[in-house]
Amino acid sequence: MINLRLCRPILTLCLAAALSALDLAPAQVLAPAAPESEAVSSERLGRLTSTLQQYVDDRQLAGAVALIARHGRVVYHEAIGMRDIESSDAMRKDAIFRIASQTKALVSAAVMVLQEQGKLLISDDLSRYLPEFEATTVAVRQDDGGYEVEASRRPITLRDLLTHTAGIDYGTGVAEDRWAKADIQGWYFAHRDETVRDTVARMASLPFAAHPGERFVYGYNTDILGAVIERVSGQSLDAFLREAILDPVGMEDTHFYLPPDKVGRLATVYSASGDGLKRAPEPGLGIGQGHYVKGPRVSFSGGAGLLSTAKDYARFLQMMLNGGSLDGSRVLSRKSVELMTVDHLDGIPFRAGQGFGLGFSVVTDLGARGQPGSVGEFGWGGAYHSTQANSMFDANGG
User: Fold this and answer.
1) 33 phi and psi, to 5 degrees?
2) What's the sign of the alpha-carbon dihedral 226, 229, 235, 238?
3) C-alpha 102: how far from chain center
4) What is the DSSP string of 19-39?
5) pLDDT tens per residue, range 233-253
6) Domain 13-101+251-391 has what CATH class?
7) Full-prediction pTM beyond 0.85?
């Protein structure tokens, strides 16, 4: 079964892909195909179109792009609703979306590229590359509502960052007063006029939310990995990501900041409220149009900074499903892909029926999760409700 999680009311982008464990992707990657030729029901795909259209009609959703591929062939690719309501601009298949935390999967893959190049090991201490993290601290909440700061019980490793077990949140946890004072909270970086390396360096002196290796704590982990990539590669994250992944995979419309000629394709962000849809402030709260178009263009957020299209991100997913290669370009080894897409939490609680690998959540128990899918399915989503679901174990499903 191809699993496309049902889209939330303020969804902007849905992605799904599946590759049979027994079949190789065709030579023409992600070419369109009749659904029935890949054992997919056109009638059932029509239900997805109807559901998304209903969201638009009910003013719960401005617009969406959804893409589904099976065996490396696109069986569904539709644009629904409006890219921008105020200008009456219809959604288009090549609309560019803020993919937010789906950036994390790409940056995690970039770390694995550096490991294959022999430039780092994910078992290394973070301080080997960013020395300011050699002695970190943790804020421990006290019974009176305050907190005490104590030394971390062990060093943070790169693997901790890849699995979100470093204990680092988004600055809104126990010691949020110190993070607020440092002006480091939330996942948005596009407005900053300091490099991500400089922002990350300031994080090192702040108290974290948990001891390394003890809890799953979602936060700045992948932004810190972006700084590691810059340190190890000697390039900006933007440049290294393009050289190592975006260009080899053919992701021509994936950027941290939009080229001028693509500004008209950026999907406007709307918030759902009791009064319907409201256009997000510009630039306000980090979710308006402004900074991706006219911002400083200095800070490259490895945790949430990229913009992309459904087609581009589908190419990245297909590369992963192919075991690390696409169109003759080898991005990762098959063994690196396998390592990224199995559970690494070793009993650390996460979600029912799911573990977490290196940049992806992983389904470990279908019944415990309680949703259709496949054991081994891996994916992640973004703050603007974009989502991906990927299954390598689809030899017999329809």
Assistant:
1) -145, 150
2) negative
3) 1
4) --SS-PPPSSTTEE--GGGGT
5) 999 999 999 999 999 999 999
6) alpha beta
7) yes
